[in-house]
Design goal:
The structure is a homodimer. With about 220 residues, chain A is mainly alpha-helical. Chain A is built from eleven helices and three strands; from the N terminus they run H-H-E-H-H-E-E-H-H-H-H-H-H-H. Chain A has two domains: about 70 residues, Winged helix-like DNA-binding domain superfamily/Winged helix DNA-binding domain (Arc Repressor Mutant, subunit A); about 140 residues, Four Helix Bundle (Hemerythrin (Met), subunit A), CATH 1.20.120. Helices cover about 75% and strands about 5% of the residues of chain A. Chain A binds a DNA duplex (30 and 30 nucleotides) through helix 4.
Chain lengths: ~220, ~220
DNA sequence: TTTTGTATAATTGTATACACGAATACTCAA
DNA sequence: TTGAGTATTCGTGTATACAATTATACAAAA
């Protein structure tokens, strides 16, 4: 899936429109005309069409035959729902990781945490972007470690979806520290092969992220 | 999403190839050439391309740029994993339905159950296809009743995914009866606004489906 | 025999052309 | 002015044409 996106034009158009929807450039019920989009991006209708069809599958666009494509939009409630779903599935993921994780992946998780902790220790102040990237890496490794193609695929999709909400939420130093501590606890539980604990911790980890979002005034309605 | 699939050619090609992959006509690592597929289906490359790009997003096809599209395939483990995930999310769905369901949807659920029960009472033997369709309808209504676009979308996708596994599994009369009883219990819990009970019952309902699959020799490895 | 280079064929990627359907604007009668 | 009916316009749906890339076949050199 990733392969195709990288070099091909159609793939880039897809990602671009997707970003523009998630960022709010195109708002709900906006009509997405193939010609217009193509001219804006300097490509023909063909790759645009492919992108729109894919976006429909993702639920970001609604296509009415012979009529047009319209932005479905993504509400605060949608994002909130995804977090709830994610909290359950991240728990499941951690549980499965206990059984399937490799030594190499354990090392990778350790490394991600160490790098995060290093960032937070910097006296010059931590690099928020870097910390966010490392957070993403930690979770991504965990997804792969679940040994389930389906679950991994799903969680990565979600992660992409809420990327924008995350970008908008300021990473408070306090939350960042707590988050890393929680990562470490999860890793510990997985090392100890304690499935129940791993599940519970991963579950709560997402719930804490949600609490933080709410504290920052995120609208879940 | 459904709208587009119904009338357009590209949508039908998408569903057709999807079916063929899930049914095993195209096996893992098979190359899907746009021209060949187009000729087989009597259409040009354009709708085939759109379909392949969509299938990639679903994880059924892997596209390597400038090389081709290959069937990713779906293993027994994939299906099993989906059932596990589904069991959690169906629980969540039932929980949310308790809060969001409308009177009309309650009636629709009741109707689906009544029709199922009617099928099972027929002395001439029940129509398995009909019962399966009604089962699907029951769940679909419940998905909508969750009030969550995201969850509903997700569960419908899953339902499609495992459709084939279900088709292959014989619907034993015993299991069918139990299944309908479980549906009725779920509906009862939702009517009673008992979220915990609804969640637990919906959860277990899927677990029972899984047990039945296993009993029929389904390979989850 | 193996390897490497090159020409050729096959396949994908993108753009364009044409067909079809839907929406809009217009005409003309009441 | 209003309304029905028709013409025109606009956008999508599909097919085809062309460009770019990759795979294949074959020949020449090591």
């Amino acid at each position: 899936m990733e392969e195709y996106q990288e070099h091909s034009l159609g793939g880039r158009v897809f990602q671009r429109i997707r970003e523009d929807i998630l960022n709010g450039k195109y708002k709900e019920h906006d009509e997405l005309r193939e010609n217009t989009l193509g001219k804006e991006l300097g490509v023909s209708r063909t790759p645009v069409r492919e992108a729109l069809r894919q976006l429909e599958l993702e639920g970001l666009v609604t296509i009415i035959p012979n009529r047009g494509a319209y932005v479905t939009g993504i509400t605060g409630k949608d994002i909130w729902d995804i977090y709830v779903i994610r909290s359950m599935l991240e728990g499941l993921c951690a549980r499965w990781a206990v059984e399937h994780i490799t030594d190499e992946q354990l090392d990778e998780l350790e490394e991600a945490i160490l790098l995060s902790e290093f960032q937070m220790k910097k006296t010059s102040g931590f690099n928020a972007e870097q910390v966010t990237e490392l957070d993403g890496r930690f979770h991504s490794i965990l997804y792969d470690a679940s040994g389930s193609r389906m679950l991994s695929h799903l969680l990565k999709d979600f992660h992409n979806y809420v990327k924008v909400a995350r970008k908008n939420s300021v990473v408070s130093e306090e939350r960042a520290r707590k988050s890393i501590r929680e990562h470490r606890q999860i890793l510990r539980a997985i090392r100890d092969r304690d499935a129940d604990m791993a599940e519970q911790l991963a579950n709560e980890h997402i719930l804490h992220v949600m609490q933080n979002l709410k504290k920052q005034g995120f609208e879940a309605k």
